[in-house]
């Protein structure tokens, strides 16, 4: 399924903003990675992530399985099991995650799809559009390559509050370049009587 939409700027009275849309699968993958980056010490459950983002648990199960296969998320089975970010995943580029989770970068029909197939086009031998679109795609991914999962988790304070996570201790990260400032735990809702 192609989930990219380009709106070309055409002179005239109506101007639409440029748009490029990633699949929900990629969006959820990035959200899981971000959540786990904020919750480095301790395990999280798929239910925790589902509740924090308001995303279907079933969708997240598929995402987490793939992230585990890629070695980016460690899963711990059992009664007290859960998920955590794999040790080197903070340094992963956003572009690397997008490349692994997007199923198709065929922006137009003459680009090879994930099976390597493409539609024939009569202007292909002289077409410059495909080169412009390929350059735009490469620039998009190149920009995403400049950012890491660890960087997305900064500043942590604002994100943890929005996701229902609360700081439990301050422990500067002296072991790596991520600069993540501490650990967080899932806030359990207070029961009102």
UniProtKB/TrEMBL annotation:
Keyword list, A-Z: DNA-binding
Domain of life where this protein originates: Bacteria
Task: Specify whether Electron transport is a keyword of the entry.
Answer: no
* Record-linked InterPro entries: Tscrpt_reg_Rrf2 (IPR000944), WH-like_DNA-bd_sf (IPR036388), WH_DNA-bd_sf (IPR036390)
Q: Which Pfam families match?
A: Rrf2
This protein's record includes keyword Lyase: no
Gene Ontology molecular function, alphabetical = DNA binding; DNA-binding transcription factor activity
Q: Which cellular component, as a GO term, is one annotated location? A: cytosol
| Record protein name field | BadM/Rrf2 family transcriptional regulator
Organism per entry: Paraburkholderia eburnea
């Amino acid at each position: 399924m192609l989930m990219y939409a380009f709106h070309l700027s055409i002179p005239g009275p109506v101007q639409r903003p440029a748009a490029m849309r990633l699949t929900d699968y990629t969006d959820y993958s990035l959200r899981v990675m971000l959540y786990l980056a904020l919750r480095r010490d301790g395990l999280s459950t798929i239910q925790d992530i589902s509740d924090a983002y308001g995303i279907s648990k079933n969708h997240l199960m598929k995402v987490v399985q793939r992230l585990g296969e890629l070695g980016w998320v460690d899963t711990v089975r059992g009664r007290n099991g859960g998920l955590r970010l794999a040790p080197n995943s903070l340094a992963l580029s956003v572009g690397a995650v997008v490349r692994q989770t997007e199923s198709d970068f065929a922006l137009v029909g003459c680009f090879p799809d994930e099976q390597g197939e493409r539609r024939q086009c009569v202007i292909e031998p002289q077409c410059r559009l495909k080169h412009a679109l390929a350059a735009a795609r490469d620039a998009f991914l190149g920009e995403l390559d400049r950012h890491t999962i660890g960087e997305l988790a900064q500043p942590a304070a604002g994100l943890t509050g929005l996701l229902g996570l609360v700081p439990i201790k301050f422990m500067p990260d002296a072991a790596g370049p991520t600069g993540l400032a501490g650990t967080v735990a899932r806030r359990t809702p207070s029961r009102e009587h």
